[in-house]
């Protein structure tokens, strides 16, 4: 079976990215017993060995070993280190370093350095240069300035990936493979070749120019297309019709996903016993990509760069990278240096334990040594610019000691959430289009990510595990409650999945702004919410902004600070609550019984003041148990009878506890109250 799959993998790379989809599904990496799972935690670092002499590398490795590190991520951003000129490869120094890592007991994540492409590649193959929407060809001045759709780039990247994975597949230090650091943060390109590739994508998607005209609403304002050659690349930054902007971003998303699938096929062929753990950036503003619809095709573990600003947003993004996987989260880059905010003592340790709390398995410091030049020369690492260890190295050594204590005590946390929040790449683009003439922004006055965070916040504060998923691509039967905050674009797959989920006994909560446009970013020509009016038993009508809204939930008056509201017209739905400060006291929350389940509609955008009381009325009936009670700024989870507490604030916090408990990390005994210092953490047991 393996030989047949290997042959298919080769064919997949040769034929193109879209054929890889079925192969990746058939070879799902999730849950392999020989890959890191329960009882294993990892602390390590990112290492740019190209900046270091052999003497420095030997000293660095000795310090890593002494600090208790287990894993080092190397290779990223270093294509020309391995291939200084086309077809001329040099692995001598890297071979030696891999041997040194193994001798020290360190494992290596080898990142395929697909970006940035070397200068020689840009010089010889200018098709890899970025062209702006104004037609200006750009030099590769920044590391993300590669046109990854270019055939020469794709060919040479595949060769590099093939050579690296073949060369090191059996090396005893190799632990995992990563792909194209921070892929997703590249630039959209507007060359003539890009236009033709975009047209090819449109032909495959729509089949005929007539179908494309309908999807792009070209009857509006004299935009009808008579031939494919009349298609131009839409302006991602505007102006332009929103239907076209959405398809442009989808196209570049597919290019990115195609690159990942091709690299994954190479890994499966050459190093099938090593997992794919890549530092991906699906939410990057420049392009991004549809990770949540496709991640099982090219990841074994959800992985990311973790540079948290505040706990709620950090938890949401990390949870989104996990998606519906049963494997834990990897922080391939983890906040370590930079002075100021990130340089506060104790903060990195706190975030590491915060990561454990939400299901992480690894924290790899970015970066090991402070950079003397380049784009991040002011970013302080674990080793200062004068080659002396900073206090940060000691802090990561402490994290390594903590993880060593905890890894046999129920970590990493592998639980299955009962609550899921819907999130979709298409919806990000559709609900926030670019351009000066933007009626969508006038209509949606609360950004989509803010709505998602608002829906997430009460659950987060109740210390409940939540999944963030694309509801059109997951088995919703795994969840008791699915929340759909402001899903402006509702495609057929998501609508069908929600309908089935409710009919079979699930509970869904949908908020205002949802299900207004279809797959083509055009408003439904039916009653709203589109495709689901019967499931929710109502019609949403006009919308108003009253500054703030007031409603009663459970007999308590609630004030929402987002004043937008929709006029709900129930048919079969029951009115659970009404607005008390608007004309007619229209319904604010409705509930419709559909099949065996319940469909709840909230007439305002998601806001925690309203969502929290609503959730808490549902917990008992859904079998959802809140986690340990904590004050604001402190998060907690029950882990095999023990409780992990993390204080993410810069001030001491007192937390009420039941009886007397002992801190596994602190060694202290606590009776009645746990006292955590600023950024303090502890695991309590009876």
TrEMBL record:
Residues crossing the lipid bilayer are none
Q: Which Gene3D superfamilies match?
A: 3.40.50.880, Glycosidases
A Pfam family reported for this protein in Swiss-Prot or TrEMBL: Glyco_hydro_42M
Recorded GO molecular functions are:
beta-galactosidase activity
Q: Which reaction does it catalyse?
A: Hydrolysis of terminal non-reducing beta-D-galactose residues in beta-D-galactosides
* InterPro entries xref list: Beta_galactosidase_Trimer, Class_I_gatase-like, GH, Glyco_hydro_42, Glyco_hydro_42_N
* Residue ranges of domain Beta-galactosidase trimerisation in the record: 418-624
EC main class here is hydrolase
Superkingdom classification of source: Bacteria
Q: Which residues form the signal peptide?
A: 1-26
Q: Which PANTHER family match?
A: BETA-GALACTOSIDASE GANA, BETA-GALACTOSIDASE YESZ
Q: What is this protein called?
A: beta-galactosidase
